[in-house]
Every structure is written in structure tokens, then in C-alpha cells.
């Protein structure tokens, strides 16, 4: 099964992608992982991406597309994949269409995780991270520490990252609406979009997604 996962920041795409990929026995291909792998391995595309990133510029679509095409050509993706964070705009979506068409394959579905904007802001702006270990994550409403501002695990100080502040979250949502959301209409025209609510517990959303994709959950 070949799937594209879309949704606003804070929709839980990364979490759902990992569970769905495991349930469907396909690789989870995220843009972040592509960039890290290519840069760490020193590939030509990685070098190009790093030069743009070091200069504080956005990586051009053709570089991102090249990385995605290389990854989708790997043996473990022969029977399908789940794309997370790519395509990010209509130009990338059209390039993906052409790439898959050239291989004689096509997407099976575009899974759209729907979350109300106010909930997105609440989810992200409420996050608090431990200064000692960023894997220790709490939330002022959904996962409160026993003592306010103190990590339950190591006693470190909890803080709000700059990109989690409400003003920044709303700017990220604006970018999503302007750049990424239009790909949903692009794929709706192809009859590929399956929209589900991303509200509720993680396992509930996963079950909802698997049902929408017509797949059995392991």
C-alpha cells in the first residue's frame, strides 16, 4: 500500500505514521529522516541540502524530490510506503505523481488527519520539555507533571520551546494552509483522499485510520 499522510502541525502525524507503517508492514518515510540520512551519509543530494540549510535557505523542491525518489526505490519500499512530510506542496505532489507513473505504480490513498485549529494550538503551545532530556515531554493539560515546572523523570526544569509558543504555532498553521493544504484538493480530484478525525487517544486514531484504509489492524 502506498500512502501519503497529511495534516496540520500537531495532528500527530509522526506518531500515527510509525503505528500505521508497522501495522501495514511498509517503511515510514519522513522528510526529516531523508534529510538526516542524506546529510550524514554525505550523498550528493545531502551536500546540496546542507549548503542551502547552512545558508538559512529553504531546500529547493528538486533536491527534496530527488531524496524521496531515491528512498522509494529501495527494496524495502517495493510493496509500498508511507510518506510523512512529503509532498509538502502541489509542485512536489505533481512531481510524485510523475515519478510513480514512470514506475508503473500509483498511490492507494492520501490520509488526511483532521484537527480543529484551536486544538492544534492547545496541543503544541501546552507542551513542556525537560532541559536535561528532550525526550521527557509533558503537557500543561493532557500530561501534567506531578510538580509544576519539574520533570517527573529526572527533576530537570521544564520549559516551552520557542517554536511551541502560540504566536509561532499560528504562523506554522498559516504556512500549512497556504502551502500544504492545497495538495488535499489536488488529490481529491484523483479520488484518493480519506479524511479522519485525529482527536482522541493514539490507538483510537490508529484504529480509525486503519478502518478508513480498509486494512486489518495487527
UniProtKB/TrEMBL annotation:
**GO CC aspect terms:** cytoplasm
- Annotated localization: Cytoplasm
Q: What Pfam families does the database record attribute to this sequence?
A: ADK, ADK_lid
Q: Where does ATP bind?
A: 10-15, 127, 137-138, 200
Say which family it is in. Belongs to the adenylate kinase family.
In terms of PANTHER family, this protein maps to:
NUCLEOTIDE KINASE (PTHR23359)
Under which name does UniProt file this protein? Adenylate kinase
Gene that encodes the chain: adk
Amino acid at each position: 500500500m502506498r500512502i501519503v499522510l497529511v495534516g496540520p502541525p500537531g495532528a500527530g502525524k509522526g506518531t500515527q505514521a510509525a503505528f500505521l507503517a508497522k501495522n501495514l508492514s511498509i517503511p515510514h518515510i519522513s522528510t526529516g529522516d531523508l534529510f538526516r540520512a542524506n546529510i550524514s551519509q554525505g550523498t550528493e543530494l545531502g551536500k546540496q541540502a546542507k549548503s542551502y540549510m547552512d545558508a538559512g535557505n529553504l531546500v529547493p523542491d528538486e533536491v527534496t524530490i530527488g531524496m524521496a525518489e531515491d528512498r522509494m526505490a529501495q527494496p524495502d519500499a517495493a510493496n509500498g510506503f508511507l510518506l510523512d512530510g512529503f509532498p509538502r506542496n502541489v509542485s512536489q505532489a505533481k512531481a510524485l505523481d510523475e515519478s510513480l507513473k514512470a514506475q508503473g505504480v500509483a498511490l492507494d490513498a492520501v490520509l488526511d488527519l483532521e484537527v480543529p485549529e484551536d486544538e492544534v494550538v492547545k496541543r503544541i503551545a501546552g507542551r513542556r520539555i525537560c532541559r536535561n532530556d528532550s525526550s521527557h515531554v509533558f503537557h500543561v493539560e493532557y500530561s501534567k507533571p506531578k510538580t509544576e515546572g519539574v520533570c517527573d523523570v529526572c527533576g530537570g526544569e521544564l520549559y516551552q520551546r520557542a517554536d511551541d509558543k502560540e504566536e509561532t504555532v499560528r504562523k506554522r498553521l498559516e504556512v500549512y494552509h497556504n502551502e500544504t493544504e492545497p495538495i488535499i484538493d489536488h488529490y481529491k480530484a484523483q479520488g484518493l483522499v480519506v479524511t479522519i478525525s485525529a482527536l482522541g487517544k493514539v490507538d483510537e486514531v490508529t484504529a480509525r485510520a486503519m478502518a478508513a484504509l480498509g486494512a486489518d489492524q495487527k
